[in-house]
Amino acid sequence: MLVVGAGIMGAGIAQVAAQAGHRVWLHDTREGAAASAKTALAKTLQGLVDKGKLAADAAEGALARITPISTLAEAAAARVVVEAIVENLEVKRGLFRDLEALLSDDAILATNTSSISVTAIANGLRLPGRLVGMHFFNPVPLMKLVEVVSGLHTEPPVAEAIYALSQAWGKVPVHAKSSPGFIVNRIARPYYAETLALLQEQAATPAVLDACLRGAAFRMGPCELMDLIGHDTNFAVTNSVYGAYFQDKRFGPSGVQRDLVDAGWLGRKNGRGFYPYPQSDADKALPAAPQAAPGALTVHGQCAWAARIADALSAAGLSVTRDTAAAAVAITLAEGGELRPTDGRPAAQLAFEGGARDVAVFDWSVTETVAPGTPIAFALASGASDAFAARAAGVLAAAGWQPLRVADAAGLVVARTIAMLVNEAADAVLQGVCSPEGADAAMKLGVNYPAGPFEWLARVGAPAVMGLLDRLDTHYRGERYRVSPWLRQRVWSAA
Q1: In whole angstroms, what is the distance from residue 341 CA to residue 364 CA?
Q2: What would the pLDDT profile of 245-287 be if each residue is shown by its tens digit?
Q3: Quick one: which H or E segment has residue 310?
Q4: Which residue, 258, 277, 259, is CA-closest to 267?
Q5: Which of 173, 345, 396, 403 could link 166 by a cystine bridge, Cβ 3.0 to 4.6 Å?
Q6: Sequence-ordered list of residues with C-beta below 8 angstroms from that of 112, at least 6 positions apart, any chain
């Protein structure tokens, strides 16, 4: 096989193919780049040997199967080509036209593009049906996911052949239709966008928002992740997806991130983003919410979550009464006041509609278990008393969480983020971009999410997700939070 492009991605693809037993020709237009890449791979493979992760003879064999070449003509016998060159449509088209004139008609042409339409790349080829996307994730040897992307021209047997080849290389392939962002880069947009929207509203600090989402088992919070990626890169991808979807408000860029880019605060790579680098303990500090021990309380709700909260509060020594006749989860205090998990309405709206003053809302818990001290966001109606605020924080702390008070923003932090991730995945399935199983695998393996969007949907329930999104849509009155028709159909068909 032939790998074109000897940068980080191309070298990684060559390594994986060679370790799987394939003979690989490695080409790059930069003089000496392919040979340098092989030299670097020799050090990488030796490092694996030194760590006991690879046998010495396996490393030697893999390296021997990689041949740097200076001209494409030297690989005329290749049956599969994987392109990993610059993200430029015309450059990629030119390469594949050259390859088409060189290779046999049954050779498969694969592009590792992450952002360009596979359909557009194939346009103009003599045999466009043999071009398919084979999108790897960096670092290629470690990341399991491969998006097998079919354009309008791609013949199904070609996509299936690349799917099987990915499996033979030890990867987990998922089929995707060529559309902006494919699966991962599309579905992941709300993870950044909802936090940026909350920052725009001054709902919380980056440290608090990151802590809340790490509390939902994400490895990194969105602010620290954007700092790692680089705000210039993340902002450019957002603008690209936004333009590709014809300025759909759901994908709109953020003024908060634009300001960071304009300021030159690009993240870790230049020492300042949402956080300064290196970070101090003060940069990571979280504000402590004043807490007071509540008296007797009643936990309402029929679901397992209500039972789990009641059990935790009882174990903490509080006097707890269970009300299993109520459908909705709520915690009422003997001293007065009520806590509810967010349904998308701010605490102030609930207080107004219920004629109450002491109302608090708290975030969703979407993990199957909760570690002691897990951060959770809560908010209070504007008229709530300080005494109730302290007791509300005390209830959440007694249940095992670390309560972090945020502004009274609709949908809080985790709930609106998870709901939007589910919603975007639902639209991707509706539009034939991927299957539910493909979406789950892609998000867990491509960006290390703790669960797939449809796994979250199964835990939380479609009515809760749809209800929260509908209330966000009412609150913000825009297109951003419109519910996917796939999700509505799910609710209706289960009713």
Answers
A1: 6
A2: 999 999 999 999 999 999 999 999 999 999 999 988 888 889 9
A3: helix 304-315
A4: 277
A5: 173
A6: 5, 9, 10, 13, 82, 83, 84, 133, 134, 135, 136
Q: Which of 420, 417, 422, 495 is CA-nearest to residue 457?
A: 422
Classify residue 109 by its DSSP letter: E
Catalytic residues: 114, 135, 147, 185
Residue written as tokens 């500090």? 285
Residue 75 has phi, psi (to 5 degrees) of -115, 30
- Residue 310: closest CA among 336, 343, 332, 337: 332
Count the neighbouring beta carbons within 10 Å of the beta carbon of residue 138. Answer: 11
Q: What is the DSSP string of 221-290?
A: -HHHHHHHH-HHHHHHHHHHHHHHTTT-GGG---HHHHHHHHHT--BGGGTBSSSBSSPPHHHH--PPPP
Instruction: Give the tens place of pLDDT for each residue, 372-428.
Output: 999 999 999 999 999 999 999 999 999 999 999 999 999 999 999 999 999 999 999
Q: What confidence tens digit (pLDDT) does each residue in 459-487 have?
A: 999 999 999 999 999 999 989 999 999 99
Of all helices (H) and strands (E), which one includes residue 163? helix 156-168
Could you give the angle at which helices 453-460 and 414-430 cross, rounded to 10 degrees? 120
d(CA 160, CA 134): 11
What stretches of 301-349 adopt beta strand conformation (E)? 320-323, 330-333, 338-341
The CA distance from 63 to 43, in Å, is: 10
Of the candidates 399, 408, 407, 382, the residue with the CA atom closest to the CA atom of residue 293: 399
Q: What is the DSSP letter of 324?
A: T
User: In Å, what is the CA distance from 237 to each residue of 240, 251, 277?
Assistant: 5, 10, 23
Distances (CA, A) of 169 to 21, 180, 466: 9, 26, 39
pTM of the full structure = 0.95
Return d(Cα 300, Cα 125) in angstroms, integer.
Answer: 64
